[in-house]
Amino acid sequence: MGADLSELLRIERYSRPDHRAEAAATTIMSSAFDPAFGEAWTAAQLAGFMSLPGVTLSLARLDGASLGFSLCRHILDEAELLLIATERRWQNRGVGDALLKDCIRLARKSRIETLHLEVRSNNRAIEFYSRHGFEQVHRRPAYYRGSDGTYYDALSFTLALNRS
User: Where would I find the beta strands (DSSP E) of the chain?
Assistant: First the structure.
């Protein structure tokens, strides 16, 4: 495992469509997500989400290079982490951790009460989310379909924020 880069990263946030930021995120997805599960979004899907209110794309950058991104959406007092990804060669070096902490910090600042996310049942990121305090609250059987036709359950997680 390489050095933790989280303190060296600069997080840039975009809450409006930005073609360069979206292109960086699309490139990161092609490296980060296993094509067998079809998790990477197309550029058109990402652009469509960026045109919605309450959506923030955050890029983790180091020396001008985009190493990872997160995509979050907030509505009223709830938020959802839609996507988070790190360029494959930068994984397990603190980039995802910095992006998730930034998403949580932004949600708290926005007075969000609950942060939600959903993940495929065999995704190794489940441990990562659990370490950050997310708790599984629901299971959707056979929700995701892999490229080989195998079905996977979807697990819904929540993180309670801003509660006394």
Answer: 10-14, 55-62, 65-75, 78-86, 114-120, 135-145, 151-160
